[in-house]
Amino acid sequence: MPRRPRGRVLYDGCYAHVYSRSLDKKFIYRSREDFECFRDLLKEAKWKSGFRIHHYCLMNTHFHLVVSIESLRLFSRALKEIKQGYAKAYKDKYKKQGPIWWGRFGSQLIESERYLYACGLYIEMNPVKAGMVARPEDWEYSSSRHYFLKQKDELVDLYERPSYECASQLCEGLNVGRGSYIGTPLFLLNRGQA
Question: Span 83-97, mean pLDDT?
Fold first, then answer.
């Protein structure tokens, strides 16, 4: 079955959950320098392309972003350039060849504030669910320190967001854990809305 054109899912001015995984679940962020290289590419792309990042989490094998997209065309090009730029830096550093990413980036449209909060919580809980840290704010490669510890993060663009406790209550009953496939029909079935 052919993939749906991105313009039929996302649009100018929308909010979206964007993610991309490494090929064969290989570690593509192996060191602090690798994480920082990817963060720098994100910062530069944000500045050039005008999209905003509200939540993010960089894991060893993948990344998640919650973004607001001013121009879908510019955003798609920016993500392509980020992934290509990081792939080049990674292959140069580790003397590797071939692709490091599993296809294009995936995306889910965010259609409500409740879902926006759920995505943010889901993304920031990734390292906890994976058993890498005890608390979201213990993972330094995510927006959680910005929200939980009030640490300035150049990647994070503010939006009106309730406290963690309020967001958790708003998301009560939503399955935001690992494997919930936020945005998919399975996620909607788990919420009793499909």
Answer: 97
